[in-house]
Amino acid sequence: MQALCRVARRLYSTQPPERAASALPKLAATARDASAPMAVRERRERKRAHLKPPTDSDLTPSEYSGYRRALAKGELMDQRGRDMTEAQWLDALNERRTRLRGLKVTDNNGEKELQVVGQRIYLPNIIFRMVRNHTPTGKPYNPYEATFRVPMSVTKTDVRSYLSAMYGVKTTYIRTANYFSPLYRKYNGAKATRSYRTYKRAVVGLVDPFYYPEAMEDMTAEDRKERMEWLNEKFALDALKRWRRHELVRTSLSGSKNWRFTGHLRRDKILKAVARSRSRMLREVEDMKEELADKRAQGIPIFSDTKRGSQPSKWREALLAN
Question: Name one GO molecular function term (predicted).
């Protein structure tokens, strides 16, 4: 009877057990909380103070409420009559969240084995395109988060299974958003969409940090120059750009006589090139005027057929010597 009463009292316990270290890294948990949607963060701020978790707790307000509710109901008691700590409950919750699709854990004489119960897929024909995370101006880059562009048919469990099976990446959360192509009118007036502009964005939380390559605008001048030289050496970007412009002008001016490519396509660049040529000509005229004025001051005869930089003939040299 005393044992039953003791169990009954523990079913309604409100004092949580001592905390232990969580398997989820502290920085990963912080990054997960910071990336929560705006509606979730606003809802957490509206909660009363006694419903929010302590400052040293790794649980979010929703997880803390679920943990206290299960603790009060006695659902966290083990066979020895002890309650699970917050870290143990969070590890079990994260393990359930990150379970892989198509796998089943079996107990073989006390050893856990993974059994494939789903259909194996070899060489999947889906493309995961990794892009840079959206980082607001003045905010640091979040290395515990990765962004992918995936097909519309891919689900969150597919993303988790693909990253774990192919690259061994452990995830903490996955948030997806669908982006549809805007409507445009065809030649017959009908409305349609462009399939290549329709995609699904998957924001994945990471256990281990991953630092995306530094953007060009964030590099120093020397690093940026080194990166551009490497890109030109490997991919010939400048040559491709020049050939593309040349082909564009050649096809647009096909059939024109005496055509040659000057390297300028836009009207503003053409006007700048004309202005540079005109200023160069004016400088040459001014230099010629100064040269003629110096010769007049020195009493040197000036001949109209004398070109700038050319040497006078022998009879002119004799005339000047006399």
Answer: structural constituent of ribosome
